[in-house]
Every structure is written in structure tokens, then in C-alpha cells.
């Protein structure tokens, strides 16, 4: 989930200028290679010239995780089979097997801990309630990653239940991720690698932090409302929130199939495009939403149009007034129950079971102390009656009268806003967005710039985002500035 803030105006982009050449996504080897900050193209170039193996790459990242994860808390679990997968990838490359030339072949990737993997890793959304559960199969996007030859390095920490359990828990807190880290309040949560006391934002913060801190080069996050865009902005990385349905949601712990989407979080637009290209497309287990998925990246450009306003934006940004909150709590109960019922093995089989589990944990004075008011509200819902159906109609109308009308009437391709404040506007319509690093404040805390558009506009957004990234080249590695202890509790 995200955090509504007022947006006073939008900078709007429409296409005609700034063309890109065919070589814009190519790698360069004009500098001395270092795994830190390396792109996937640079890594693949090292593979090609036998200067690096996947096994060496995985060992490097495991060493970095060992050194840094106790500080930033970005990773919840490492795959015990990662080195085996790396060895297998090296053998496939040596044998020149079909598929070994994929851009993600032999590249380690971290997955948010609500994305299912049918392996030795857990899939828990950061909750002890799902620890030990067994999923029936890999998530749709994981199947595509494995087909591309990617190495599943592990699972990233997150806001427990993707931020949909409690209004009181801090950003980046989960029961599993906080276990054994109770010396002070902040040490139990994810930490921004640029300024450790700064807010890491959104529920995909573990994926963003791990990439920013060079514990991996690429990762996956999920977004219902702001959970890719916000942590990407706060941790100086690139995040793509795809059009709902461009990537499959099958096997991903749900909140709302109307708004849920899965996308890449990387250090460059190019890497994010490579990951997105690998995971988009039709999935029979999410057939209705993925049928119209598209992969191409055409040429084009942009002209700046300033000071246009979206109709009813203040209503859209208030989830209670817009009705988004009611729609989400209603959908969550329906779809989390359906997800839990399909698990092969699980300690819990319904939202009611999860609530009871959390109550028991709290009674035993274990790690859960932030409440579960969103769960409790969701459990009181009974599906879509007249009120809930009217809410969905209102949300659709807000999108059509707001962003859709504005962009169509002005023949616009994209809008750009500082930070991730635009997230609710994109969320309720299932629209895509891309965050690109844009700068750092006086304390060194990162902030991003977000490009959003209508459904299916990823190719144009990628082109614009790439142009901005290459023109500014603003991103720098994290500094791990220490805590401001005055901010801890």
C-alpha cells in the first residue's frame, strides 16, 4: 500500500521528439569491470569472455548479503540451492545449450516474499502464519524466470502481508524479518542503505534495498498501490509497475486482482526492461488479465506540456473517500481465502485462521505487537453487495473522468511527477508507472521521478524513462549513513 499526499500539478509528456537508436540498450566494456553496480549486460559480457562464472557471481552476492543484510535487513531468506543453480548455468553456457544466451541466463534474482516458489524457499509474505506452508507450484512469473535461466537467489523482506495487515506497523516491518533484531525499534525493520534512519517506503522495500545495496543486480516486487514506485523512489533504484495483467499474478499472495501487479526493481532502466521482457505474457492461470500482454519497445519521443490537472485528484488520493479502501478489504478476504485453500500444506486456510494465529502469537508475547486492524475489517466483509459494486463503478468513473480523459483530450503519452505521489491515480485504474532515480536531498536521502501512463503504454514510458536516465545519470551507490538515534524508539 502507499501513502496519499496532495499533488498540486503534473508535468505531462506527449510524443514527437527525443528518438532512441537501436544501440541504446547495449552494454559497454570501456571501463574496468566490477561486480558492484554492474548491469546484466556487463555481467553477460564477462560470461561471454570467460572472465566470470555464475558460481563466482552468486558467491560474491552471498558474501555481500553476509556483510550487509544485518545492517539493512533486506533479505528474509537465501536459497540453499543457489550455488547449484549457478553451477548448472555455467555448464549450460559451456555446452552452448539453447537458451544459454538469454539476457537473464545465469543472473541471480531476488523475489519479494509473497511470490511463490516451488523449492526449498518459504513463501510467507513476512508472516510466521505461512512459515512451512507448501505452494502447489511456482508463480507464473517465476516459471518464466526459470525458463530464461535466471537463478533464484532468495526472498526479500517486505511490509508483512504487503502492508495490508496493520496501519500501525512501520514501513519495512515483518514478523519474520524482525525475528531476533529487537535491540531497538529501527533494527527490526528494513533500512534505507543511503541513510539508515530514512523511510524505506512501500512493501517492496526489501527488493529495492537489496538492489541498491548491491546484494543482487535485479529483483522482483509487487504493487497494489505504491509498493514498487515508492520504495524505488526512496532507495534510488528503477522500478516498473506494469499495467495490471501485463505480468501474471498466479501464485502471488493476493490483495486485489483488480490492482495487483508484479514488476522489476533494478539499478538501471535497461536491466528493468530485460526482466520485464522475461516475465510478461500470457499465463493460463491468470488468463483473463494476461491475454493482451505486450512485449515490444518502439521508437518515439516527447514534448513537455506543463500545469495540467487531473479531475477529482484529491478524491482519488484519499482511499477512504474514493472507496478504494473498501474495495480492497472486500477483495482481500475473497482472494486470500482462495489462495490459502490451494496450498498443498499450510498452518492457516483462511483469513480467520490468520487472525487467530496472530492473536495467539500476541498472547505469547512474541514478535507481533502492531495489531491487525485491516485484517479485522476485511474479515467483517461479505463479498460484493450493492454498496461494494457501486464503489467499483465509482473507482472506474474516477479513472475515466480523471487520468484517462486528461490524457486522451490532450493526446498525451505520459505524465511525470516527483516521488511516488501519483501511485493511487495509477493504482485504481490498473495503469503502469516507472520510477527513475532523480536526486538526493540535503541529508543524502534519495528521491525519484515517476512516469505514468494509460494501459499498455509501457513501451513509451520505458523510452521516456531511459532518456531521462541517460540524460541525468544521477544515481550513485549507497553510503550507509548511520542512524539518527533521535528518530528511533
Automatic annotation (TrEMBL):
SUPFAM superfamilies: Amidase signature (AS) enzymes
Swiss-Prot/TrEMBL keywords: Signal
Domain Amidase: residue ranges: 57-299
Pfam families: Amidase
InterPro entries per UniProt: Amidase_dom, AS_sf
Keyword Disulfide bond: no
Domain of life: Eukaryota
UniProt entry tagged with the keyword Signal: yes
Signal sequence range: 1-26
Database matches in PANTHER family: AMIDASE, OS04G0183300 PROTEIN
Full protein name: Amidase domain-containing protein
Source organism of this protein record: Coptis chinensis
